[in-house]
Design goal:
Blueprint: E1 20-26, E2 32-36, E3 43-44, E4 49-54, E5 60-65, E6 70-75, E7 80-81, E8 93-98
C-alpha cells in the first residue's frame, strides 16, 4: 500500500526476490493412484522424478518427471488421477522457471 501511495512512507522492498517465468503444466497419461514426491516451493531439475501413478496393487504404472528446471508452484492433492488431462484435473504439477 505504501508503494501505491495508499499509506505514507517508503515501502520495504525485498532485494532477493525471484521472478517465475515460463510456467509448465505437467499431466499424467495413465489413471491410478497419484503419489506426489515433491511439495509446493520445492526446486526441481529437468528429468527429476516428481511423482508417480500407481495401480491398486501398488505397482508404478507411470513415472512423472519434471520437463524443466524450476520450482513447484502448485500440485493436485487428489488420491486418484484420471487418465490424460481433464476439466476437473487439468494437471498434476504446475512448474515455473526461476530467474
Amino acid at each position: 500500500m505504501k508503494l501505491t501511495g495508499i499509506m505514507s512512507g517508503e515501502p520495504a522492498l525485498r532485494t532477493n526476490q525471484r521472478k517465475l517465468t515460463s510456467p509448465v503444466l505437467v499431466s499424467n497419461h495413465k489413471a491410478g493412484i497419484f503419489n506426489g514426491l515433491v511439495q509446493i516451493s520445492d526446486r526441481v531439475s529437468k528429468g527429476q522424478k516428481i511423482g508417480e501413478i500407481l495401480n491398486f496393487t501398488g505397482d508404478t504404472v507411470e513415472e512423472i518427471t519434471s520437463p524443466i528446471d524450476g520450482m513447484i508452484v502448485d500440485r493436485i492433492n487428489f488420491a486418484a488421477a484420471d487418465a490424460f488431462p481433464t476439466q476437473k484435473q487439468p494437471y498434476l504439477f504446475y512448474i515455473a522457471k526461476i530467474e
